[in-house]
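In this section we walk through a basic example: taking a raw amino acid sequence and producing a predicted 3D structure, encoded as discrete structure tokens. The instruction is simple. Fold the sequence below.
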Amino acid sequence: MTFEQWMRGTLDRVETALEHYLPGTNVAPARLHEAMRYAVLGGGKRVRPLLCHAAGELTNTGASAVEAASCALEMMHVYSLVHDDMPCMDDDALRRGKPTVHIQYDDATALLVGDALQSQAFVALTADGNGLKDAQQAALTRELALASGSVGMAGGQAIDLESVGRKLSRPELETMHRNKTGALLRAAVRMGALAGDKPSADNLAALDQYAAAVGLAFQVVDDILDVTADSARLGKTAGKDAQNDKPTYVSIIGLEASRELAVQLGRDAHAALAPFGARGQRLAELADLIVNQVN
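The resulting token sequence is shown next.
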């Protein structure tokens, strides 16, 4: 199976699983559930679910288990996007090529959509019959909670908001992005692996090294594309970082140095996968998918 075939098949599985784990519009409150489905379904690159599925292949994770984990990750990610786009944060009107939730509905509905998706992520992780053993449900719930809380994604967003108009050092910028973006990407890799046969400490450490490289590469690439790509390609408003006077890798080290950093992080990701040999192929291909966007 080629990487493209694997990716298309995995994305189809993720979409079907998300349909299953999201409440239907025939369930009250119908408008809230409609807005949740609007935010989640039919769009996005699904990087976190793809990483989760690829890591799960290393530990023989069952189909139901990896689908539950990947859905939880995507719902947590989308909640963050819905809130990030609101007027009190980045105030954006476009996400995944369509109007943001607060534009399509209203601010109050967008706030509730984010709140409900965060809760629904944990519903998916603890649902009866999702293929995860009790101990795995507890472990994955902890991973997701830590990655999305004040020492993870939410904390990174807080640093981001505090940094508008400031000149951050490169280490400060890296800390912000390892929390805001990298924490949930790291959780995606760990959750995929922990949903199957228990990985050894050495293998889990190697996956952490891989995830650290990929997580930072993802943000560096995002900073580059914000400058070099148009809104149609991004699916969100281009040039927002500069418009909002946000510190980025491009603003701190320049465009070419940022490209070189992304490529080096891709190499670091490949190197971290060495203990897995050919079994790490999908994770390596996903690293390439992320980095090659800037070429």
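Looking at the output, two observations stand out. The mean pLDDT is 94. Residues 3-294 form a domain with the Farnesyl Diphosphate Synthase fold (CATH 1.10.600.10). In the next section we compare this with other chains.
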